[in-house]
Amino acid sequence: MFRIFLGVGLMKLFYIKRVAETKDGTFGVLFDETVPFALTLERRWLNNKRGESCIPIGEYRCDRVLSPKFGETFEIKNVQGRSEILFHKGNLDDDSHGCVLIAEQFDYANGETLIANSKQGFLEFMGRLSGQDQFTLLIKN
């Protein structure tokens, strides 16, 4: 399935299906169109507070960017009251700061639920977007 965005052409659709919110963060499954391929971790919902909250459910445009800290990645755009929300590697909600972390599996260590194999998950995400400069992201519960 492809989406048309503002008449500029075909854009790939990714979506995050959030599956749990715990004291350790908001956990989800990341889909490429209809195929689940990775896991996500965001901060818990704190009224969309910049740097401290997951983003609201909704539909967003994502653009390829070069981050000074994380390298080549995608930025989630048009989130009301927020900016500089990136997809990147990380394992704990404390690594997120309002961004979306990508990994390959759930894990548990030191009394905390986390995601693991983040490098592999992020590389697969970027590989699925090879040759793409934008995509549409749908976030739902």
Key words describing this protein structure:
eight-stranded mixed β-barrel; 141 residues; disordered N terminus; 11 strands; two-stranded antiparallel sheet; mainly beta; 8% helix
Major β-sheet profile: 8 strands, mixed, barrel
Q: Any low-confidence stretches, pLDDT <50, length ≥5? A: 1-8
The H/E string reads: EEEEEEEEEEHE
Helix content: under 10%
The proportion of strand residues reads: over 45%
Number of strand segments:
11
Protein described:
There is one protein chain. The protein is mainly beta and 141 residues long. It is 8% helix and 52% strand. The chain has 1 helix and 11 strands; from the N terminus they run ββββββββββαβ. An 8-stranded mixed barrel has the order 2-3-4-8-7-6-5-11. A two-stranded antiparallel sheet has the order 9-10. A hairpin with a 2-residue loop joins strand 2 (10-22) and strand 3. The longest helix is centred in the C-terminal third of the chain and has 11 residues, at 118-128. It starts with a strand and ends with a strand. 30% of the residues are buried.
Task: Describe the secondary structure blueprint for this structure.
Layout: E1 2-4, E2 10-22, E3 25-32, E4 35-42, E5 58-67, E6 71-76, E7 85-88, E8 100-103, E9 105-109, E10 112-116, H1 118-128, E11 134-140
Parallel strand pairs: 2-11, 7-8
Antiparallel strand pairs: 1-2, 2-3, 3-4, 4-8, 5-6, 5-11, 6-7, 9-10
